[in-house]
Fold these 4 entries.
Entry 1:
Amino acid sequence: LEGLLLGEEEPRTGYVMTIGLDRISLMNQAYGAAAVDHIIEEAGFRLRSSLPVGSHMARISGDIFAIVMSDMSAHRGESIAVNLIKGFASQPFHTSHGPIRLTISIGGLALNGECMRGGDALSRAEIALSRAKSMGGGCFHAYHDGLQNTIETRGLLGRGFEFLQANDEHRLVMAYQPVIHSDSGDIAFYESLIRM
């Protein structure tokens, strides 16, 4: 899987998914780390057993899995994603705390033969996963080129709102930072910074 996800730039075909377990931090608070570790491990087994033969899967962070399915059409990849979401929602995990329902969110990327590095494919699938999670969990979202710009724009708007709110609450402070000549060590000028 590492070669598929982190390899050099080359034409790629197939489907990449990143799968996140929803609200895992709340479960950690409610049931404890041991129960959550068990759920994550069981989720991995459930995912692996639900995938087509020839799929590659890895846990890439605490509660996120990556799946690469070679020679898979976008339609088939999206169908698998929807079935995974339905399967998780309908089958609780059995723990010492009793049955626990868990939903998953999935970001998908169709690889249609374009040249890209494996890491770029994974990043795009993670951007789609972020969008799916922002829709409330238990969702699927397919990557498209405008998605990156939408997420960046939302981030800028959010930071702009924070700035305006800080201004209204008089939490902005002007700071002056000296810029030093490397040769002489003398102050060349002051850079003006606004801090919240």
Entry 2:
Amino acid sequence: RVPEEIVVEIAEILPEERRRLKRRRAIATVIPLTAVAVIILLSMASINEGSLDFTNREVDLIVTDSMDGEPKEQYAIKTIPKGALVMVRYISDQEKYELQVGDVIQFNYKNLKDHHRVIENNPDERYVVTKGDNSSAREHVPYEDINGMVIGESKWMGDIVTFAKKNIILIVGGLISLLIGLFLLDSMRRDRQTSS
């Protein structure tokens, strides 16, 4: 037989140990999730002129290779590979007059959003001429069709988005399986605790 004092001590220790384990589990969950959130925010800031202000912005996935030409070292956006993620800052009518040769803009073209480099700006007639770095075609773009200017790009973030889009069923199935597995493990642990 176990002395009563020991039974009382064990009964007092068990709830405290359970609380400690719950805290450890919470910390073990919160720290990685916080780290992932910080990495995502900093990555997005890196293509957003270093800012965490995402107002008047749009993120696009580049699906063609029209801007995947020889890097233009003299410009802020040197090239945009197919599959890259770009940050577009919406621009005002006044900023359209100030567009420079070499700026990469987003504009509406044949019911699609396109992203090409400005090669000419004609403020008097309110249009720009654009061309993809990997294309010989030139587009005459009226100011009213210009949405914004590309201010940053990231190929690796685009690769992650592309992978997620192509494998969404696999990813969702894996997450559901993981949650079911964690639920089953927790149920088995609780069953063991109640039986002992």
Entry 3:
Amino acid sequence: AIILDRQGPGCHILVNEDDLYTNNGTVTLSISAGDEITGVGSMSLSNDGASWSSWQAYQAGTLSWSMVNGSGGTVTNGYRFVHIRFMDNAGNIAGTSTDRIMYDDTIPQGTITINEAATYTISRQVRLNSSWADNAAGVEYARFGTSAGTLGQWESPTTVRTWLFDADGTGAVYMQLMDRCGNTSTVVSDSIVVDT
């Protein structure tokens, strides 16, 4: 008897369990496919939908995949797509299934000034001006402190905020940023002489 099978297998893929962001070029794929007639035989993967990996035996469950070094991979930051296609045991190839994730492995950059970079102030309450830039994912958090080792809790960033020094003398404020992919910036700072 001959089994006639003209339909490719149904398929599904998730990157990092459908996370939105990553700073790691190697991701975990959750893979599933089914073919009721002849069964799923092989699968092939791609980062760009044009250059495909060699067909390999179908593996349900999870699979580690490089968006940098895998077929069609690149180091470029931004939205990255992982494509998968399946072949059943009759040779039918299913349509491509795709998932995407924001990939950013570059740290954000930021600056901070106190009272528009003034040298002196006669008030212990000062104004902080912050600016930042990020390669792809965007800055999500900032934290501040009076030293690089005593930074406070992460908070939503704002370009202007107030700061209260405890005493007169040379005061400094330090800032660190985090983008949506979890990359943290180097700590930046500014100082001012407080004389009330």
Entry 4:
Amino acid sequence: WDWIQGDTLISGTTYHKLYRYKTCSGGGLPVLMFNGYFGAIRQDIIQKKVYYFSNSYSTEKLLYDFNLSIGDTISTLMNGPNNRVVFIDSIFMETSFRKRFWLSPLNSFPQGDSAYAALIEGLGSTHGLTEPIYIPFESGSVLGCFWKNGNAAYIDSLWALSCSFATEISEVLPRQLELFISPNPSSGIFTINFSE
């Protein structure tokens, strides 16, 4: 999860502070990869651009440009390949329509107009706010949902199984398990079984 919490002043410019809670699960229990502040963003609403500042950079970088046309080439900030805009449509979010720019990779497989990601005005990439925009292979990121002012403003119906946050756990009951060891006594090799 990424979220905005508070503002910060960097070189005289106001940015929104970005936080991230990121886990990875390779078939087992999720492993915490990162939790905390990871950068800041600002919008230039008139120019329709979003800028990103990270502790890794000495200057801000262009994250999104929403002044695009079909055929325009964009390079992604977050180490993805170059992409081109293959078509533009719109999506209804909250109370208005937002432009959606569908992207296809340059010089990579598959060739052609196979759009695999989109940039949505006022939202960002369908791969996540600052995630690389590339064709997923064995792993990848997706923007499952976007919350604004306590409401789900965007839900990706293909990926988001649930767009709700756990905000409270009322009670956790301890589980009673019985442990069986056999043979007992043992000569060194034994079996451990648990009750269901």
